[in-house]
What does this fold into?
Amino acid sequence: MRKLFLILLLLLFGYVNNAYSKVWLLPDYQRKQVYSHRVNGPEIDNPIPEEPVVKFSCYNYSNWKPLKDIPEGYDCTDYFYGPETCCKSWSCNISAYPNTSASCVSAGKIADTSSGNCTEANGDVRYKKCKCDTSKYPHTSSNCSDFLYGNSCSDSSGTHYEQCIDACTKASAEEVCIASCSYGCNKTYTDCDTCCIECQTCRKTDCTAEGFTLSQCPANAVCEECVPGCDDNTKYFKATGCATNYYDPDIYWCSTYC
It folds into this structure.
């Protein structure tokens, strides 16, 4: 009887010990989970899933952009180097956009908006080029057939002028006309005969008006000559009679024909 009792006791002890030491094999998809409670038998309580993997992006941060997405013409001024290079702030490339409205005005021009522009973070706009204000400088060689005059402005399209005037207006504006000459005008302004720019220094004789119309004295005639003077040594003649023993049948000078 005692031996039977011991055998039953040993069998009971082995059963209980086996129940607490039993190993449970889990499928693969359950092995990947993390649990908040210990596994008790086949029951599983409160599984905690894995955190999702988030891919790095500059756009995940406020006001940051990938360097490759910075607009053309801008330079990055604040970098962050991670899996990709990020830029937090940027400004206009001064070498590409060297001008502002104020700098153009100070140079006597206006901003050329058609050349391209770049806006700074504070709202200031920079430009590639300045150009002449054609409302102030409307005239060029292509639209003025007379004289370009006055202040000028040059840009990539050429030189622009304030005025387009005729020769006489130009002469008057330049004050080159001589009011009067004692001995007459020797030289007039280009394309303006009413403006004398050089006076004669002496009075020339008008030989033709005084009857000296011949360029040489006729043969067998007696002539007088006239030289205008004032560096004009051209000789002009007029016949006043016949040589000895000659006469003019129309006037009956002398005794024979001239």
Remarks:
- The chain has four helices and 15 strands.
